[in-house]
Design brief:
The chain is an all-alpha fold. It has 2 domains: 68 residues, no CATH class; 40 residues, no CATH class. It is built from 7 helices and no strands. The radius of gyration is 18 Å and the shape is elongated. The termini are far apart.
C-alpha cells in the first residue's frame, strides 16, 4: 500500500477499517484524488504529495471504517447499505441453519466483515428467504 495510516496494524483484525483503507488505496492508485483534495484549483499541475499528506489522509479514511468512525457517520445520517458482495452461497446458509444462531451470526460477521447487529439482521433476513 502506498497510502498507509498510523494505525495500519489494526487492518488484519478490523475488516471494515481494512475495507475503507483498501478503497482509499484503490481510489488513489495514481494519486489524483488526494492531490485534488489538497489543491483542487489547479488540475493541470497537482501538488506533489508528501508521505505525511498520504499518512494523514489514510489515517482519517481508516478511522471512518472503525466503530467510532462508523458511529460518527451514522450520527450524520449515513446508513450502511449492504453491497452485492454480501452474499453467502447456499452451502454457507445451510451450514448456518444447521448450527445455532450464535454460530451463524459469528460466521456471517467473519465472512462478511460486518458488525454484530448487521450480522444478526443479515442472518434473520437470509433464513427468512429459505
Amino acid at each position: 500500500m502506498k497510502n498507509v495510516g498510523v494505525n495500519a496494524h489494526r487492518l488484519p483484525r478490523e475488516p471494515e477499517e481494512k475495507r475503507f483503507a483498501q478503497a482509499w488505496e484503490d481510489q488513489n492508485e495514481q494519486g489524483k484524488t488526494l492531490a485534488y483534495i489538497l489543491d483542487g484549483a489547479d488540475q493541470q499541475h497537482p501538488p506533489a504529495l508528501s508521505d505525511r499528506d498520504r499518512q494523514v489522509a489514510a489515517t482519517v479514511v481508516q478511522w471512518l471504517g472503525s466503530h467510532v468512525g462508523q458511529c460518527f457517520l451514522r450520527d450524520l445520517g449515513y446508513v450502511r447499505v449492504p453491497s452485492r458482495e454480501w452474499k453467502l452461497d447456499a452451502v454457507e446458509i445451510e451450514y448456518m441453519k444447521q448450527n445455532n444462531a450464535i454460530n451463524a451470526i459469528k460466521h456471517a460477521r467473519e465472512r462478511l466483515g460486518i458488525g454484530l447487529k448487521e450480522a444478526k439482521d443479515f442472518v434473520e433476513k437470509e433464513w427468512a428467504k429459505r
